[in-house]
Amino acid sequence: MVALSIATPLARHLHRHLIKQTRGQRMIPVRRCNLTVCSSKYVLSALHPMWQGPLVAPGGNRQSPIDIRVRKSVFDPHLMPLIPEYDPRTCSQVWNNGYSFLVEYNDTTDKSIDFLFPVIHSALKGGPLEDVFRLCQFHFHWGESNAWGSEHTVDRRLFPAELHMVHWNSNKYKLFEEAVMEENGLAVIGVFLKIGKRHEGLQKLVDVLPAVRHKDSVVEFTRFDPACLLPANIDDYWTYAGSLTTPPLTEAVTWIIMKQPIEVSHEQLAVFRSLLFTSAEEEVQKSMVNNFRVQQPLKGRTVRSSFTPFLKEEHHGKAPHTGH
Ligand SMILES: [Zn+2]
Prior knowledge:
12% of the residues lie in helices and 23% in strands. By secondary structure, it is α+β, with helices and mostly antiparallel strands. It binds zinc ion. Zinc ion binds next to strand 7.
């Protein structure tokens, strides 16, 4: 996804537009069945309201998420190292939007006239990006079990969860709402989560999640450095042109998918799963799980990599990989 805190009116508008075009046809995404994702196709049959009714599919030639085929990705020696410049002081709150929880950052464009207290931002540049992109929020997608949950996959391998750090092009646009409609408007970093040892940086966030258990609840959350959720190696990544994975699904996103996953504990993901899709008033409560979009066709796109998978074998000093 990229859950859009501000795009609801936009999504509504686009929904209306689409309804007119499709004359009420319902479009429900179905994840293609393969050996690894049959189970997730099954769980998606209990559709979240996000995916009910007509969907906005603008163009549809660069939709996300996708399966990253490692051997089909193309090494691009011009891909520079990524430069995240995050300021923990810009962190403001955590919001359960009924599909995920969003950790939101101050990304206002106001020019400060007070030189002692200039407006601060968290920004991302470098990598495949030519402009500076401002962090507005991050969120996760996860499954009901550790067997699936990520939106992207690597050679069909599913991870239990995936982090999305959403940035918008502040060189070209004044607002996220403008950027979300443009080809080069957004840059999203994707980080896979795998089960392992407890992630100490993530724990500060996990500790506040019970306060946003229900849909529409918000809790103040400050001084969180999003860089602590990046893997140790941010130089190795895949990048491709894609879309938002929640309505309005606009094809605005330069995706930057980290090769190295981060480790979190089963207990930490269990707290994610204790959240609810539903508000406190609703009679039937629904666990917030399986909040990912089905995969989309590549349609001739090239996935570029910043690293050379065939020349640089990894040496972990561990036993050989036993598969998954
Ligand atoms: Zn997302």
